[in-house]
Amino acid sequence: MISLDWVRALARYNRWMNDKLYALAAALGDEERKRDAGAFFSSIHGTFNHLLVADRIWLARFEGVTAPDGAMGPQGIRSLDQELYADFDELRRERALTDDALSAWVSELTDARLAAPLVFTRRGQPQTAPLWWSVAHLFNHQTHHRGQITTLLTQRGHDPGVTDLVAMLRDERARE
Question: 167 is in which domain, residue-wise?
Fold first, then answer.
């Protein structure tokens, strides 16, 4: 099982990296952010949207929110490549709000809750596994796709700098 300290560090890392990558992407024009680059979700914008979709689906599951009939997640999410927000500034604001919600949820977690089963329906099939499996998946999934965004930004001449979790942790320790 993963520890609460680890989950809380990953939530902070999630926000740290999202803030960093959205700030870099803001320097690009909308056309450049949305240009098909052959990534899993086509573009920088498409990948940011996918991450928001997936995070909202998982957060709803964690909070016990049942998806409406025919939907994968809250707010009518019907597919993993659904564009929630075409406007980058709105997407960025919603990302920050979702990061706030994820951080708030993580702050309330207990060891007992992490070990307890998470039960939800996926594609009409009931799913049950310890909550920590899905929490670990959520953060791993974010890292995977942010790595793609980092590559796409670097290819466009925008260096994200250090992206290592340990760098964030060292910086936090230095500020204590």
Answer: 4-175
